[in-house]
Amino acid sequence: MKRIVSILAALALVMSLLPVAFAEDSYIPAPYDPNEIDPKVTYMEPVYYENENGPTIGVTTVGVIVKDGLYFKDMNNNKELDVFEDWREDAKTRAAALVAQLPLEDQAGFVINALATNPAVKTLAEAKNEDGTINPASIVNMIPEGEQSQGAFANGFGSLDSWIIDNQKIKQAVYRGGLNYEASTVALLNNVITEMSEADAALRGIPTIPATLISNPISAGFPDSLGMAAAVQGDGNYDAIREYAEIDREMWVAQGINAMYGPQIDLASDPRWPRDDGTYGERPEVTAGIITALVEGYQRGNDGMKEGAVALSVKHFPGDGAAENGFESHGYTGQWRLYPTAGSLEKYQLVAFQAAVDAKCGSIMPCYSRDTKDARSAKQTYRGYEFEAMQLGSAFNPEIITTLLRDIMGFDGYVNTDSGIATGQTYGVEDMSEMERYAQLIRAGSDAIGSGLRTDYIIEAVQTGVLDKADLDRANINRATSYILQGRFDNPYLDYEKADTVRATDIETAHDQAYSLHQKAVVLLKNSENTLPIQETGKKVYIASFTGKGANDDVVEALKGLFEERGFEIVKKADKADYAYLYVAPNKTVSQGATDAEGILSLVEEFEVDERDKANASQAKTGDKIAVTTLEDVDEIPGIAEAVHANGGKVIATVVCNAPWILTNLEPYCDAITVNYTTSGASINNAYNAQLDVITGKFNPTGKLSMTLVSSDDVIALHYETLEDGTEAELCASPNDVPGYDKDQYIDPAILANVKGGSYAYQDADGNYYVSGFGLSF
Questions:
Q1: Taking each helix axis from N to C terminus, what angle separates 496-521 and 239-254, rounded to the nearest 10 degrees?
Q2: pLDDT range class, residue 365, cuts 50, 70, 90
């Protein structure tokens, strides 16, 4: 039950308690005494005080100051209105005053994000005692008195528990439960951690740091990111993206998830990079438009953080997509970011990040990878500044996150590192101790660290002079400023009973909008002789699934049902069919982290490539060969096509373009091809239906390619070369830092002369080039 106290009721309460005449300025004691109630045992229903023209104040174990007819939260229980408690002051002033009152151990805890924390139970029913009250131990793992958490001072992905909250003063955690936990239990996770923090602060007489729950993007039925880009390119309208973010924001805020690790706006410029499918494609202006709309939707406008906003940690700055030959930066094989093309950083890679900064995104997440100053890269400039290239991972690099991001681009939010940065992706700081790495992260400009739970290292760094206390203050102030603007110091509590209703209502509200975007995300690549749409019911359809690991029977069964619902007859043999429908979902040969092979984009099975020295986290070739498969049974496709064509039928394929696949072993055998960009479980049924809407003519396709599909292995071939500075390097025939639509000008004409169509972009049998922005309609 939400307890709300109006100003008149509160004044009456205070007057009844005072033996002397009531004055306008007064004090309302805390509704619960932290000396008597243990928040680890008893859940306290928060009490709220509503200001008519100001924030609602939410408290449990601290009091409320009444001054000038207004409510203020007495965060440190000293019965005085401190600057950091006065919501009439600007956020930066309040933040600086608050941080000045925090002990060093609390400052260290305020920097760290625990990386894997979910409620202890999944449902509200499980969270309740027999009498219907909430059991805090069903929400947070409570460590018995006298014992230390096994996760204390963890170097890896630690999870919050009562010991870590109480002793390490960490209140920030990454929620990883998606939609698998009831929203009410997530909201209770916020409330219980905050009640523990508030009680601890009240007893010590210091300001309360509220809980912060962070999450990666949570799929709620909308297209995946490449699909979003395909949809907006079709109609040039970003309103649907903003509306999607607005609905999603309501669900996040209701359950207490106040920050997102995302969106991912790296430019997809290297076709082998395995995280291309998490981007919005290769067009800088499209990604810029999308991130602007997302900031406006999640943060309630483009004028900075405010109450009810979700802080976006836009990633991975300054763009991890310019990866050396597609190797991914979670592992040492992908530690380098290359800029072989003069001006590419400004022309391509930073366009969307500048749009995010201009839209006042709340946070920025640097990438793991590091730049290089050797001849693999050309000198880069941005707005007249020439980069030194410090060859440090971006979060450790002051030139990237202080000089470039803050001083030149104008960012004024907080910088949140990626996960595991102090122990895993230590590029350029390998010789530092772990303590020194934490210090370097903060000194370089990082404000929040998503690594281990090593608050002890931060404390030691300050105490030994390795880290200037002013740098730690800056980090805390930047983060606290965001919290204050969100209103979470004044009222960090949630109505947990409302959270489930908000989620259910918003998912239902978003259904039609999500499905419309799925339809718009379908790209019609090929339509020879107007094969599509198929509008005659009763036709016979043969369905086949191709993946990197054989047929997916679940996909075939799902598609059979959808075709049958539309009046088609399913047959088991291709030579009996009027149409063959091939659902083609290739497998990537490069994944996150260290890898033993380069990325292969051709649709092949048991294809031999040079083995890489994965064991030593090196791109170096071992001298051996290994076999890789992107599409198992790919050699069956010609036979299926021959059988159907002999029967007078047509072959239709849907290709899952989670990479810019080379279609030489598929396209010539198909009469029509569509593209699907969505693979997430919560959205896949919408994606299937949208494909069939296009195939059967229910929807006239408008989607456009988000990435240019590669024409040939030749245009991405790797070769060794000795560069002008003596560097021995393995170079790509097309530059890693230039998006596909613009690569031709940088490729040796002799290479293009031997490629069908003479371009980096694939050309089909009808003469169409599969360049980003291409897509047919009926």
A1: 160
A2: very high
Residue type, 676: N
CB atoms within 10 A of CB 260: 25
Pick from 245, 229, 313: nearest CA to 277:
229
DSSP three-state, residue 325: helix
What does each C-alpha distance from 119 to 182, 188, 197, 198, 256 come to in angstroms? Answer: 10, 8, 17, 19, 12
SS3 category, 351: helix
569-571 vs 579-585, strand pairing mode? unpaired
Report CA Rg, the chain. 28
Q: How far apart are CA 163 and CA 149, in angstroms?
A: 6
Specify the length of the chain in residues: 778
- Greatest Cα pair distance, the chain, in angstroms, is 100
Cβ-count burial 525-539 (b if 16+ within 10 Å, e if not): bbbeeebbbbeeeeb
For residue 578, what are the contacts with CB-CB under 8 A and spacing of at least 6? 539, 540, 541, 647, 648, 649, 650
Amino acid code (one letter) for 698: K
- Judge whether 86 and 156 are in contact, CB under 8 Å: no
- Specify the 3-state DSSP secondary structure of 662: strand
pLDDT at 518: 97
Q: Are 291 and 605 in contact (CB under 8 A)?
A: no
Cα gap 614→220, rounded to integer Å: 36
Q: Which amino acid is at 686?
A: N
User: What is the pTM for the complete model shown?
Assistant: 0.95
Both tokens assigned to 719 = 């070769």
**447 φ, ψ (degrees, to nearest 5):** -110, -25
Q: Taking the mean position of all CA atoms in its chain, how far away is CA 333?
A: 23
* 704, 227 Cβ separation under 8 angstroms: no
* 298 vs 286: CA distance, rounded Å: 18
Q: Which amino acid is at 373?
A: K
What's the rounded Cα separation, in Å, for the pair 322 and 276? 11
- The letter for the amino acid at 283 is R
Instruction: Answer yes or no: is pLDDT of 537 > 90.
Output: no
CA distances from 171 to 272, 313, 437 (A): 38, 18, 22
Within 10 angstroms of residue 271's Cβ, the number of other Cβ atoms is 28
- Pull the structure tokens for residue 156: 């890896």
Rounded to 5°, the CA angle 702-705-706 comes to: 120
Q: Record the tokens describing residue 235, joined without a space.
A: 């109609």
- pLDDT value at 6 more than 70: no
Beta bridge partners of 721: 729
**Residue 559 tokens, joined:** 């598609």
Amino acid type, 217: P
Helix, coil or strand: residue 603: coil
600-629 pLDDT tens trace: 999 999 999 999 988 777 788 999 999 999
Parallel, antiparallel or unpaired: strands 212-215 and 728-732: unpaired
Closest CA to 75 of 207, 184, 174, 165: 207
Question: CA 698 to CA 670: how far, in whole Å?
Answer: 21
- Chain segment 649-692, per-residue pLDDT in tens: 999 999 999 999 999 999 999 999 999 999 988 899 999 999 99
d(CA 216, CA 115): 11
